[in-house]
């Protein structure tokens, strides 16, 4: 049926912890295992079929999980370990959260809903998705740590919902750390995304034209989604296993670094102080479009010195053509 139920419904403030789970990975003796059916009893196996949406916890308040083992045994396709509604706020510092079939955590039509993950294990090899964010006008997601998993070819984390009514216009997504054992994806309607750290073992990207990656380690080339001023550097140029994101710096002027030589020259053109400016080009090979140095007649004492970091250490190519310097 389409009936939604939950073993625990939180509309206030709830903290879950297991004092025996010292590693904060769900390995302690405390276990919260159910599928919202009070007549079913855990007997050492997850033999419960459950209903369509028999959730372990429905959260509409403030929920903090510090440790422990939380498992939804229901085979319902919308039976989550945590189903977060409305302006519900979740903080996960540790523990193991899993669902037999559905996603471990769902954020559903949140308006002001938030989730912050600092540690713990979310999802497994049978979970539909680790965290699934569905349409929410104002959803805030901060992932700073933890391990996120899902079944094969699915998403460790996904934000989006196949509906024309989806609205993520005020939503924010920020990933600074964590290990994602499968894909990480964002709907084309989502634009406020930042990925500055973490380990991504599957695809990480957007279905829209958004470049949001400034850090992290990736096991699939993320170059299509790397922000301006950064580049994906392979561990082995000829046969890469992974890519690290590094700041792309070509030149420096007055202590300020620039992604391209053209950017440094543009900064000189815009400068208004009358003095000699020095642009140092770091060693390397660069492909640049036409670079025009503009001398403002109203600033006669403004000048520019361009030098290489080391003699013969710089090669500049024009529009992918032959070397010009």
Helix run count: 1
Largest sheet, if any? 10 strands, mixed
* Mean of pLDDT: 89
What does the overall shape look like?
elongated
Please identify the structural class as seen in this structure. Answer: mainly beta
Helical residues, percent: under 10%
Number of strands: 31
**How are the strands ordered across the major sheet?**
3-6-9-12-15-18-21-23-25-24
Percent strand equals 35-45%
| Termini Cα gap | 72 Å
Segments where pLDDT lies below 50 for 5+ residues? 321-325
Q: What Rg do the Cα atoms give?
A: 25 Å
Write up what this structure looks like.
- With 325 residues, the chain is mostly beta strands.
- The protein is 3% helix and 40% strand.
- The chain contains 1 helix and 31 strands.
- The protein has one helix at 261-270, and strands at residues 4-10, 13-16, 31-34, 53-59, 62-65, 69-72, 82-85, 89-92, 96-99, 105-108, 111-117, 121-122, 129-133, 138-143, 147-148, 155-159, 172-175, 179-180, 183-186, 193-195, 199-200, 204-206, 217-218, 230-234, 243-247, 251-253, 256-258, 276-281, 284-288, 303-308, 314-318.
- A hairpin with an 8-residue loop joins strand 24 and strand 25.
- The protein starts with a strand and ends in a 7-residue tail after the last strand.
- The model is unreliable at 321-325 (pLDDT under 50).
């Amino acid at each position: 049926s389409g009936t939604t139920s939950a073993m625990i419904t939180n509309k206030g403030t709830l903290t879950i912890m297991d004092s025996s789970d010292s590693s904060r990975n769900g390995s302690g003796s405390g276990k919260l295992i159910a599928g919202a059916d009070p007549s079913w009893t855990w007997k050492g196996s997850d033999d419960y079929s459950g209903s369509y949406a028999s959730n372990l916890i429905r959260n509409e308040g403030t929920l903090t999980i510090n440790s422990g083992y939380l498992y939804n045994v229901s085979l319902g396709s919308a039976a989550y370990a945590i189903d977060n509604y409305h302006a519900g706020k979740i903080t996960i510092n540790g523990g193991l959260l899993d669902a037999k079939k559905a996603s471990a955590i769902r954020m559903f039509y949140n308006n002001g809903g938030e989730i912050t993950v600092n540690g713990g294990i979310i999802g497994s090899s049978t979970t539909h998705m680790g965290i699934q964010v569905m349409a929410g006008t104002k959803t805030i997601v901060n992932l700073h740590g933890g391990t996120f998993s899902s079944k094969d070819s699915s998403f460790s984390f996904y934000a989006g919902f196949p509906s024309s009514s989806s609205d993520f216009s005020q939503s924010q997504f920020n990933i600074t750390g964590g290990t994602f054992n499968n894909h990480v994806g964002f709907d084309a309607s989502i634009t406020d995304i930042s990925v500055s750290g973490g380990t991504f073992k599957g695809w990480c990207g957007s279905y829209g034209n958004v470049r949001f990656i400034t850090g992290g380690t990736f096991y699939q080339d993320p170059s299509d989604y790397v922000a301006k001023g950064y580049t994906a550097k392979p561990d082995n140029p000829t046969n890469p296993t992974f890519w690290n994101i590094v700041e792309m710096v070509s030149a420096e002027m007055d202590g300020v670094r620039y992604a391209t030589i053209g950017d440094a020259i543009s900064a000189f053109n815009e400068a208004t102080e009358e003095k000699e400016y020095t642009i140092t080009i770091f060693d390397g090979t660069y492909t640049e479009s036409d670079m025009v140095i503009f001398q403002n007649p109203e600033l006669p004492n403004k000048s520019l010195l361009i030098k290489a970091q080391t003699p013969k250490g710089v090669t500049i190519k024009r529009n992918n053509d032959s070397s010009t310097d």
